Amino acid sequence: MTASTLEPIIQVRGLRNQFGEQVVHDKLDLDVRPGEIIGVVGGSGSGKSVLLRSIIGLRDPDAGDVQVLGVDGRSRDDEDRRHIERNTGVLFQDGALFSSLTVGENVQVPLKEHHPELPESLLYELALLKVKLAGLPPDALDKLPSQLSGGMRKRAGLARALALDPPLLFLDEPTAGLDPIGAAAFDHLTRTLQQALGLTVFLITHDLDTLYAICDRVAVLAEKRVIAVGPLAEIERMDHPWVQEYFNGPRGRAARDGHRRIVETRD
Ligand SMILES: Nc1ncnc2c1ncn2[C@@H]1O[C@H](COP(=O)(O)OP(=O)(O)OP(=O)(O)O)[C@@H](O)[C@H]1O
């Protein structure tokens, strides 16, 4: 069975989000298929982060339905909330690590919350495993976030997002602020983990290289909704001014050419 024939892992219908007079989303629909990396793109302020927050329940939308992992994403029922929390990992744009806790302690936060019965020694081992999985050296475990580089902090945030072995991972601009080598390494890590652990990844990005390198499909946010979703090859041919400027502007062309060169060398 291919990913496209499976029930969506996230289904958003008729979403509306409004702040005062400002309507950010109106009649927004989106399906995310299990096992895919979907890249969510759109101009600054188009509502990518608000969409993420609406899906994971950090914001109650003004209208619409959100289904996540088989439950109503808008439900306030404790069991539904725990189901979503237990099965999703989120890497926020700024990492959102607790600055007074070590990396290991940060990773242990969700573990302690959902598995308070686990002994300290096992919590430590699990945190170490996640830190290694995120590509950090073991000694990062005892460091404070402020003692790490930006790229390492992202990886620490990823380690925490993976703490509960969630099948669904949300990444909000994971490569923002990283140098090109660090960004490419993070893309590679995301793809490797997604394949090895069978994850579904909802990835907000401005990074064209990331889209070309690892996304199975791309969803474009514009005009308060998802105006298109599909493989990049389809999206970049769309006759829409923002899409044309984004994908066929100088940076878009450079990313596409760079990706083609990598594919040709590989083949
Ligand atoms: N809590 C809030 N109160 C008022 N306005 C908000 C709030 N959260 C978001 N907005 C507004 O909603 C719009 C969409 O914000 P959002 O952060 O989702 O954009 P984005 O597409 O992620 O942008 P960027 O690419 O710049 O990160 C923005 O105009 C923002 O100012």
From TrEMBL:
SMART domains for this protein: AAA (SM00382)
Keyword Membrane: no
A GO MF term: ATP binding
Domain ABC transporter: from-to ranges: 10-248
InterPro entries per record: AAA+_ATPase, ABC_transporter-like_ATP-bd, ABC_transporter-like_CS, P-loop_NTPase
Keywords, ordered alphabetically: ATP-binding, Nucleotide-binding, Transport
Alphabetical list of Gene3D superfamilies matching this protein: P-loop containing nucleotide triphosphate hydrolases
The keyword Transport is assigned to this record: yes
Pfam families linked to this entry: ABC_tran
Matches recorded under PANTHER family: PROTEIN TRIGALACTOSYLDIACYLGLYCEROL 3, CHLOROPLASTIC
UniProt-recorded name of the protein: ABC transporter ATP-binding protein
Origin species: Lysobacter brunescens
